[in-house]
Amino acid sequence: MILTEAPVVTAALEAAVRAPSPHNSQPWLFELGPDTIDLVLDENRVLAVCDPDGREARLSCGAALLNLELAIAVAGRCCDVEFLPRKDRPELLARVTIGSRHRAAAAVQRLAASIRARYSNRRPFASTPVPAGFRHAVRQAARDEGAKLILLDEVGLLEAVAGLIRRADHVQMLDERFQAELRAWTKENGSRDGVPAYAGGPRPSGGLLPVRHYGNGDQTREFERDPVVAVLTTPTDGPLTQLRAGRAMQRALLTATSLGLSASFYSQPMEIPSARAVLRSLLGEHDHPQAVFRLGYGFPGSTTPRRPLGAVIRIMPGEDRR
């Protein structure tokens, strides 16, 4: 029996594709061999305007990789992960080899159980404060993957970064190429990728920060004026670091979900190089910002659809995979 035909692999792939991605672009492919799953960056789905170097796409693939590993673990198997296994093929981001039977720890089971429950909640959050213990847990989740999570209100930088996000949002609103790309990924109900209008949330009519809006709806709502905003940073940058940062981002998001919190992204300053440089300067020049998102108690929202597994899987029998 070919291992990658086993139910554990189907479950792992179904979990992997639940990872977040910019505009729900889902920039991943999975190549299946007799005992391995290769994670490949789908360069055809890298966003040309807001992510021309593929940094956000690699973060998304890192998040998918963590989901994959968690699902394999709760299915009762261990796995070995090799990052960037072939220098001659940079789009091959990771190789996962499924191993022997293994019993997942309770913490792993809790994270895996949050994969399907996690989604980007683009609606206003309640004013209920996020407890100190929950803040610590989310920070520790990022630290476990070698990253740092900075909660801006705790370091006195919320107002400064909020101003940067608003300026970056304004720049993107005036950028015709960006707006065209955003419209292209704002999909009708029934599409299996992009962000459908029902999941895009209302237009903000007030609040400290602009939330990216998808669709042409006229509904407006006031967003929170005191959001909990987190910045994920890494000590270095580059393809491998970005892949690992995606794992850290996803571990933090799944931890937040397991605690009953919601999250959504402020991607604007991450998609404009000059704004990302300013953000790094505000944070002290030492680390590289990789993702910005808000945390809080969200009202029920809607998940975004995913492509069927058949669209993201390649079976490559007989290929030399060493």
Automatic annotation (TrEMBL):
It comes from the Bacteria. This is Nitroreductase. It comes from Amycolatopsis oliviviridis.
